[in-house]
Amino acid sequence: MSDTESSKPAAGAGSAWRPRTRAVHSGSRRSGYGETSEAIFLTQGFVYDSASQAEQRFVELGDDEFIYARYGNPTTRMFEDRIAAIEGAEAAFATASGMAAVNGALCSMLKAGDHVVSSRALFGSCLYILEEILTRYGVEVTFVDGADNEQWRAALRPDTRAVFLETVSNPTLEVVDLRAVCDMAHAVGATVVVDNVFATPIFQPVIEMGADVVIYSATKHIDGQGRCLGGVILGTEEFIRKTAEPYLKHTGGAMSPFNAWVMLKGLETLHLRCNAQADSALTIATALQGHEKLNKALYPLVESHPQFDLARQQMSRGGTVLALDLKGGKEAAFRFLDALEIIIISNNLGDAKSLVTHPATTTHQRLSEEQRATLGITDGLVRVSIGLEDTDDLLEDIQAALAAV
Ligand SMILES: *Cc1c(COP(=O)(O)O)cnc(C)c1O
């Protein structure tokens, strides 16, 4: 191999690999040095051998050719190829944050006059894009109760271009019947966009269930250790190359190569971390059922969840987040948060460190009291993101803090 050429697996290599192997090897490209760990190509631009080579690259980019890091970069491309292999998607475009991915996916496909149907239970910034931004540009948005298939059916129209949803949702862990919603959406020709952050890339194969476009905030489980912001849009080659990429490369939402490298290394341990975190979350949620200080201890794969049967069909594991509804409202919730010793107060999730937040006064403060009530975000609701600490230490921390309420 020449000393400047990079090597990458032959096309199709790894397609027979199981998910954990893909998470470690897919998408790797080695430089002439033959490095074991993926290199960080911390470069904005790329040098051409001749003027005509530059001209040719602007006509058409080959598989391993780059022109500017806002359009693509070898480290970023490794991350895109690896997450696409894990998700079973044809292609991916990495973005600066999860919100750049949500905004990019929606704005790249919609225009004034289009109609969108979205579930109401969304991450706060996603709700802002749908409610405040898209509507400002003449897109009509209808919100539905995501758990109610009849509301989806009634809202979908022949001019519906896109359907947007999170399952499970933030912070109330509501489950959408993904297969049914995809079938109804496809019957009117709409593109289904799923924000799959809470279910992680490994517990819910949404493309298999019919989703057309999948979005992750890589900031969460993909980094998994609370360091870098990032996001990714996954879909067909056609959607990514012809719709999402032109919008993103010209509007500047690209992922930094350094962050892409952190995310690549994060993918190598994704299965180990998420499975350990989901094990702890299930154990803790189960132990907290019927606790005297709680109205509810919600977790998708615990029987008390109102959509337990659906969650069990759609998800191999329940994810890493629990929602606890404390008796005694805000005062009780604040005492609980303040009494925790290991679990720290922070409005993030998917971190190795366990985190707790009070949605009504933080991430969902912007909503009216009525909107929060509709979404089930009570004053006593706290969201707990379970990390990698010892399960028993976390359970004891929660039990002691509940006793202090
Ligand atoms: C965090 C999050 C986002 C936004 O991701 P950022 O990386 O913070 O921009 C979008 N959707 C969901 C469900 C999230 O949890």
Automatic annotation (TrEMBL):
<dbReference type="GO" id="GO:0005737">
    <property type="term" value="C:cytoplasm"/>
</dbReference>
<protein>
    <recommendedName>
        <fullName>O-succinylhomoserine sulfhydrylase</fullName>
        <ecNumber>2.5.1.-</ecNumber>
    </recommendedName>
</protein>
<keyword id="KW-0808">Transferase</keyword>
<comment type="pathway">
    <text>Amino-acid biosynthesis; L-methionine biosynthesis via de novo pathway; L-homocysteine from O-succinyl-L-homoserine: step 1/1.</text>
</comment>
<comment type="similarity">
    <text>Belongs to the trans-sulfuration enzymes family. MetZ subfamily.</text>
</comment>
<comment type="subunit">
    <text>Homotetramer.</text>
</comment>
<keyword id="KW-0486">Methionine biosynthesis</keyword>
<dbReference type="GO" id="GO:0071266">
    <property type="term" value="P:'de novo' L-methionine biosynthetic process"/>
</dbReference>
<dbReference type="Pfam" id="PF01053">
    <property type="entry name" value="Cys_Met_Meta_PP"/>
</dbReference>
<dbReference type="InterPro" id="IPR015422">
    <property type="entry name" value="PyrdxlP-dep_Trfase_small"/>
</dbReference>
<dbReference type="InterPro" id="IPR015424">
    <property type="entry name" value="PyrdxlP-dep_Trfase"/>
</dbReference>
<dbReference type="GO" id="GO:0016765">
    <property type="term" value="F:transferase activity, transferring alkyl or aryl (other than methyl) groups"/>
</dbReference>
<keyword id="KW-0028">Amino-acid biosynthesis</keyword>
<dbReference type="InterPro" id="IPR015421">
    <property type="entry name" value="PyrdxlP-dep_Trfase_major"/>
</dbReference>
<dbReference type="GO" id="GO:0019346">
    <property type="term" value="P:transsulfuration"/>
</dbReference>
<dbReference type="GO" id="GO:0016846">
    <property type="term" value="F:carbon-sulfur lyase activity"/>
</dbReference>
<dbReference type="InterPro" id="IPR000277">
    <property type="entry name" value="Cys/Met-Metab_PyrdxlP-dep_enz"/>
</dbReference>
<feature type="modified residue" description="N6-(pyridoxal phosphate)lysine">
    <location>
        <position position="220"/>
    </location>
</feature>
<dbReference type="GO" id="GO:0030170">
    <property type="term" value="F:pyridoxal phosphate binding"/>
</dbReference>
<keyword id="KW-0663">Pyridoxal phosphate</keyword>
<dbReference type="InterPro" id="IPR006234">
    <property type="entry name" value="O-succ-hSer_sulfhydrylase"/>
</dbReference>
<comment type="function">
    <text>Catalyzes the formation of L-homocysteine from O-succinyl-L-homoserine (OSHS) and hydrogen sulfide.</text>
</comment>
<dbReference type="GO" id="GO:0071268">
    <property type="term" value="P:homocysteine biosynthetic process"/>
</dbReference>
